[in-house]
Amino acid sequence: MQIEVRGEPLGVGVCHCLACQRRTGSVFAALAAFPVPYSVSGTAMDYVRAGDQGARFRFRFCPVCGTNLFHTEEGVEQNSVAVAVGGFADPNFPAPQDSVYDCRRHSWVQLPAGITVYDKDPI
Predict the structure, then answer these.
(1) Count of the separate structural domains present in the chain
(2) What family classification does the UniProt entry report for this protein (predicted)?
(3) Do the domain assignments include residue 108?
């Protein structure tokens, strides 16, 4: 499965919530939001979960390799798509501007200077 996005990211962030830790198998998720339109090629499987504040997120993953490549929020999927930064395989990808669920951040994770930090989800 592949996703093609256009333009610069609307924003880049990291999430330290326990659901993202479990979903990625890492200590946080790094995501970049892009405006629509975007296109997907290949087969994607879905997993839907509810966030702490009731929003429903539809995660798409590859049934062949298991990569959790992107997700949308139900009800606002016509606006943007969130893509896993690792899916770009670009070490020069822009650093995150926001960090959410800092209350779940592992103590040894160091954030970039100047990043906006939220204890939980700011929305």
Answers:
(1) 1
(2) Belongs to the Gfa family.
(3) yes
Instruction: Print the domain residue range for 30.
Output: 2-42+77-117
Is 111 part of a structural domain of the chain? yes
At residue 48, what is the residue type? V
Q: What is the mean pLDDT of residues 45-61?
A: 89
Residue 95 has pLDDT above 90, yes or no: yes
Confirm if 28 and 84 have CB atoms less than 8 A apart.
no
CB-based contact 100:15 (threshold 8 Å): yes
DSSP assignment string, the chain: -EEE--SS-SEEEEE--HHHHHHHTSS-EEEEEEESP-EEES--EEEEEE-TTS-EEEEEE-TTT--EEEEEETT-TTTEEEEEGGGG--TTSPPPSEEE-GGG--TTPPPPTT-EE-SS---
Q: For residue 14, tell me if it sits in a domain.
A: yes
